[in-house]
């Protein structure tokens, strides 16, 4: 969410120059009608025991739908094999079109038992919860852990994981399985060839880009077709400049939150990358895979992304690339938070639909995925951390994931955890992403981008049909 994260994110389209109008059908699809009766084919519960704490019907089949993006789907197939040793057969479905394929089934009341609700076509989880379409996962949290049998599942999860799955209540509806570290990704080898170290201030960043440009290398590239990727570095950048209250105000849809001086400074800094010609030519028209490929080819130094990128880009990554992630550069010494501040969170969401046939089996499948065998398999296979504390310790990690683990440790408590993308999906992806896209392609100036972001946020704040959240 990693993850990717998409293809992870293939729906959001650049909208008219403003980027403020949803793509056709987006509004209709972003919420789920509560129609459809209870699933008449629900299986009976099994007998609860020490080995079956969730009372799974051992003869019942299970249907699991996996988003086939940056993490692929083999890790899920491996988890099926563990599940089937004690329980029924698993029907495996993979797709990149989660909303297109799953939304109709949610409406009709015959959803699968587990949905990996990720990618550009992820369903609006907040709307699904509002319509009582998603199971409360508290039974899973209170079940014995398969990672550490002396603890409950809830006591093995990294800080923020449970909160990330809560939406205005104390119940967890969504399990974010991966723990994603976002930041500025680069090749250590490429920097060394230019006799550069990673720039810790914005002046140093501009100087690095200028040096690269002289050698025919762009400073930056990014997923131009999915401009919300910029949030991975912009959100922590302006939070670093102005403090945690800046992002909190934006998440809470407070009036004039986007007009904070820290946001203005961050937007102006990023716009300077465009103005000085440090963006790879053609970037506004490429997707995440194309941007990663150009980056791997040495066409650009820096790429805003999440820690799923090491797995997603593995086919085009040179062996001597030394993929590395760093926090966004500080603006200057006046920043409210240290350079080490990063954006990291539990991501790659899974849910158990309320009207699924085999709810207990769905939760057990997730419990197994949180066990030692599956968490370590996931990290080794797709080069990503999981939400289980300490699960990657002792593993031989690839360079990118190793660096992600290092900067997460260095950040300590200086971790930014935005909620805008969870609570107001269309606002985050389409409208704010669209405004940033227009700014980074030179269509509008930073002041206009801020104005559009604020208007979009104000429109959501005034819309009584949208449930509001606070942190």
List the helices and strands and how they pair.
Layout lengths: L25 H4 L32 E6 L6 H11 L5 E6 L2 H11 L5 E3 L8 H6 L7 H4 L19 H4 L10 E13 H6 L8 H13 L3 E3 L10 H12 L1 H8 L9 H15 L12 H9 L3 E7 L2 H4 L10 E4 L15 E10 L7 H11 L2 H11 L2 E2 L12 H13 L3 E2 L3 H4 L1 H16 L5 H17 L9
Parallel strand pairs: 1-2, 1-3, 5-6, 8-10
Antiparallel strand pairs: 3-8, 4-6, 4-7, 4-8, 4-9
Helix pairs in contact: 2-14, 2-15, 9-10, 9-11, 11-19, 18-19
Poorly predicted sequence stretches spanning 5 or more consecutive residues: 1-36
Mind telling me the CATH class of the largest domain?
Answer: Alpha Beta
Tally of domains: 2
Distance between the termini: 21 Å
The best one-word shape is: globular
Strand content: 5-15%
Keywords:
D-Maltodextrin-Binding Protein, domain 2, N-acetylglucosamine/diacetylchitobiose ABC transporter substrate-binding protein, 2 domains, signal, 19 helices, alpha/beta, 471 residues
Describe what this molecule looks like in 3D.
It comes from Streptomyces daliensis. InterPro entries: Bact_solute-bd_prot1, Chitin_NgcE, SBP, TAT_signal, TAT_signal_bac_arc. The protein is an alpha/beta fold and 471 residues long. The protein folds into 2 domains: 35-179 and 345-405, D-Maltodextrin-Binding Protein, domain 2; 182-343, Periplasmic binding protein-like II (D-Maltodextrin-Binding Protein, domain 2), CATH 3.40.190.10. Helix content is 38%, strand content 12%. The chain is built from 19 helices and 10 strands. Strands 1, 2, 3, 4, 5, 6, 7, 8, 9 and 10 form a 10-stranded mixed sheet that branches. Strand 1, helix 2 and strand 2 form a beta-alpha-beta unit. Helix 18 (425-440) runs antiparallel to helix 19 (446-462). The radius of gyration is 22 Å and the shape is globular. Residues 1-36 have low confidence and may be disordered.
């Amino acid at each position: 969410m990693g993850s990717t994260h998409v293809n992870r994110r293939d729906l959001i389209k650049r909208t008219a120059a403003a980027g403020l109008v949803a793509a056709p059908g987006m509004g209709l699809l972003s919420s789920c009608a509560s129609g459809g009766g209870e699933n008449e084919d629900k299986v009976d519960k099994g007998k609860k025991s020490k080995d079956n704490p969730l009372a799974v019907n051992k003869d019942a089949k299970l249907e699991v739908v996996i988003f086939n993006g940056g993490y692929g789907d083999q890790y899920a197939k491996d988890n099926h094999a563990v599940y089937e040793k004690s329980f029924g057969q698993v029907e495996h479905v993979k797709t990149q079109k989660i909303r297109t394929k799953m939304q109709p089934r949610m409406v009709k009341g015959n959803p699968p038992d587990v949905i990996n609700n990720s990618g550009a076509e992820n369903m609006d989880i907040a709307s699904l919860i509002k319509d009582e379409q998603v199971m409360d996962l508290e039974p899973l949290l209170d079940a014995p852990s398969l990672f550490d049998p002396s603890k409950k599942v809830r006591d093995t999860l990294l800080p923020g994981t449970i909160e990330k799955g809560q939406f205005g209540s104390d119940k967890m509806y969504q399990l974010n399985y991966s723990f994603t570290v976002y930041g500025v990704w680069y090749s250590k080898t490429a920097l060394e060839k230019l006799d550069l170290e990673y720039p810790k201030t914005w002046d140093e960043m501009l100087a690095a880009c200028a040096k690269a440009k002289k050698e025919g290398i762009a400073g930056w590239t990014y997923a131009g077709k999915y401009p919300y990727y910029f949030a991975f570095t912009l959100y922590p950048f302006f939070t670093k400049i102005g403090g945690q209250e800046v992002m909190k105000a934006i998440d809470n849809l407070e009036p004039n939150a986007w007009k904070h001086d820290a946001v203005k400074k961050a937007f102006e800094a990023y716009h300077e990358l465009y103005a000085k010609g440090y963006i790879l030519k053609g970037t506004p028209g490429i997707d995440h895979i194309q941007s990663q490929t150009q980056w791997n080819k040495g066409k650009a130094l820096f790429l805003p992304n999440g820690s799923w990128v090491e797995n997603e880009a593995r086919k085009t990554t040179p062996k001597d690339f030394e993929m590395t992630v760093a926090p966004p550069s500080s603006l200057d010494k006046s920043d409210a938070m240290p350079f080490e501040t990063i954006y990291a969170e539990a991501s790659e969401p899974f849910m158990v639909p309320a009207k699924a046939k085999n709810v207990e089996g769905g939760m057990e499948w997730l419990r197994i995925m949180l066990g030692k065998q599956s968490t370590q398999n996931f990290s080794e296979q797709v080069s990503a951390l999981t939400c289980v504390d300490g699960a990657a310790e002792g593993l031989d990690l690839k360079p990118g994931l190793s660096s992600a683990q290092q900067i997460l440790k260095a950040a300590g408590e200086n971790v930014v955890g935005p909620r805008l993308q969870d609570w107001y999906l269309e606002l985050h992806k389409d409208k704010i992403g669209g405004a940033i896209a227009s700014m980074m392609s030179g269509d509008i100036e930073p002041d206009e981008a801020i104005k559009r972001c604020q208007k979009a946020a104000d429109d959501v704040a005034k819309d009584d049909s949208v449930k509001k959240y606070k942190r």
